[in-house]
Amino acid sequence: MKKKTAVIFESFQENLRIASWEALTCAIEFSEDGVDEITLVLMDDKPKTKAGELSRQSGYPVIAIDIGNGGLYNSERTLSMLSDLFRNQETTHICLAGTTQGLDYAPGLATRLSKQCMTAVESVVTEEQNLCLARAIYGGKIMEKVRVDASGAVIVTQPGTFKPFSEETSGAEVVECLTIDTPAESIHNVKVKQVQKESSALAEAPVIISAGRGIKEEENLELVQRLAAVFTKSAVGGSRPICDLEWMEYKQQVGITGATVTPDLYLACGISGAAQHISGMRNSGFIVSINIDPKAAIFNYSDVCIVEDLTTFIPTFIETVEKLKPA
Ligand SMILES: Cc1cc2nc3c(=O)[nH]c(=O)nc-3n(C[C@H](O)[C@H](O)[C@H](O)COP(=O)(O)OP(=O)(O)OC[C@H]3O[C@@H](n4cnc5c(N)ncnc54)[C@H](O)[C@@H]3O)c2cc1C
User: Fold this and answer.
1) What residues flank ligand 1, with Cβ below 6 Å?
2) Which of 22, 59, 230, 307 would be a feasible disulfide site paired with 162, CB 3.0-4.6 Å?
3) What pLDDT score does 167 carry?
4) Which amino acid residue places its CA nearest to atom 7 of ligand 1?
5) 238-247 pLDDT per residue, tens
6) What is the rounded distance in angstroms from the CA atom of residue 86 to the CA atom of residue 94?
């Protein structure tokens, strides 16, 4: 059966989110060229101009929905509009990015449309000649490949895992503008205030040493700092639990809700490799991981895998480097 896929584009502060372009890549990879249909949906305040640009840039037709309300996201209204739209469109697959907004409305949309909801999709793979969606489960230890039946699904992509769509197209502009009436909402968003992120040394450092929950005790952070000092220009980062424990500042957190980093060398100490961490560091030049678990997911993304207790390995490594230094 032919797939009819809709990709929902999100905009923020006048720009289309990169994660939405990644969701489009997922939809294209999950479609059979020349057989399946792809339409883009843009929800925005006065979306006409942006929808025109999106259609020309992508080469796909765009449905532009005016959400009014100064463009402020409202989960009730979004759900109402999208479920009305897709009920009338016979859309089988709906692809969107796993942003804060996307993760907020995707499960509700799937329920209203009686479709399954697949979150954290990282890639499209072929299994026994069927296109499948792949995602990490059990803290990233296992890659699950899921075949979606013809009735379709709501597919939520993990930001940072697909390449953003960037093909040159010479597509003509095809835009349909819709206004969808919705019932009065019980929730009214007043304002969106962006968090002022403090800049951290992570953005500039060619070497990042990151600590995860495997360091076990705050005192062991000293080991990580000593390891960082071995390199002339380095910075110390961490996984989210380490920041939640207040052992590090949030500006040092690497991952989907922290910083995205691309140092020449990323050294992960006691980090398991959950998808949310990986999406922030997977594009580092060279990745070395220290973990006592030989099956840790981070090893799937590492150039060098060290299966060792970090409290044994790090002091031995520092001692060896010290010995090798010219007197
Ligand atoms: C919406 C959302 C957003 C998130 N955003 C982020 C994010 O931005 N960044 C982030 O990091 N996480 C994020 N998370 C959390 C994420 O899912 C994981 O829980 C987290 O990354 C795990 O951190 P960890 O690897 O330090 O800890 P764990 O998963 O507990 O892993 C600890 C690892 O240390 C190893 N270990 C234990 N002892 C030793 C030892 N002595 N020597 C060596 N290795 C040892 C263990 O084998 C294990 O692999 C997010 C989660 C959600 C739901």
Assistant:
1) 139, 212-214, 239-241, 253-258, 270-272, 274, 276-277, 280, 290-293, 296, 309-311
2) 22
3) 86
4) 255
5) 999 999 999 9
6) 9
Domain 4-178: which CATH class? alpha beta
Return the half-sphere exposure (C-beta side, CA atoms, 13 A cut-off) of residue 56: 6
Question: Over the Cα atoms of the chain, what is R_g?
Answer: 22
Which residue is listed with tokens 């500042």? Answer: 249
Residue located nearest, by CA, to atom 49 of ligand 1 = 272
Distance in angstroms (rounded) separating the CA atoms of residues 211 and 268: 6
pLDDT digits (tens, 9 = 90+) for 254-295: 998 888 898 999 999 999 999 889 888 988 999 999 999 999
Name which of 216, 236, 233 is nearest 225 in CA terms: 236
- Locate 242 and state its tokens: 């380490």
Q: Tell how far the Cα of 242 is from the centroid of ligand 1, in angstroms.
A: 8
With H, G, I as helix, E, B as strand and everything else as coil, classify residue 189: coil
CA-based end-to-end distance of the chain:
72
Report how far ligand 1's centroid is from the alpha carbon of 25 (Å): 28
Query: What CATH number should be reported for the domain whose range is 201-324?
Result: 3.40.50.1220
Contacts of 262 (CB under 8 A, 6+ apart): 283, 284, 285
- The residue behind tokens 């140092």 is 263
